[in-house]
Amino acid sequence: ELTSHGFDFHEVITELNNLTTYNEKISMIDCLLAIGGADGELSHDEAEEIRRITKALRIPHKVFIESKIEILSRLR
């Protein structure tokens, strides 16, 4: 899936899966969720894109939900 700026999602995800540990991937997802919520809310579109990245990084959905709940609780 190539965007107009030449970014290939699958190529980047493949490299991340090859170069990072499971815990590093979890940290990346936590960072993405924090960035998504930096404006005081996490939109549905932001959460869905991060969920898609989480799935591609082979992180269980349960872990994504736990991280999302943690971020949402900080926003309240």
Brief account:
This protein has 76 residues and is mainly alpha-helical. The chain is 71% helix and 0% strand.
Q: Note poorly predicted spans.
A: none
Order of helices and strands: HHHH
Termini separation (Å)?
A: 35 Å
- Which structural class matches the secondary elements? mainly alpha
- Rounded to the nearest angstrom, the radius of gyration is 13 Å
Description:
There is one protein chain. By secondary structure, this protein is an all-alpha fold. Helix content is 71%, strand content 0%. The protein is built from four helices and no strands.
Please name the defining characteristics of this protein.
mainly alpha; 71% helix; globular
Helix and strand arrangement:
Elements: H1 9-19, H2 22-36, H3 44-56, H4 61-75
Helix pairs in contact: 2-3, 2-4
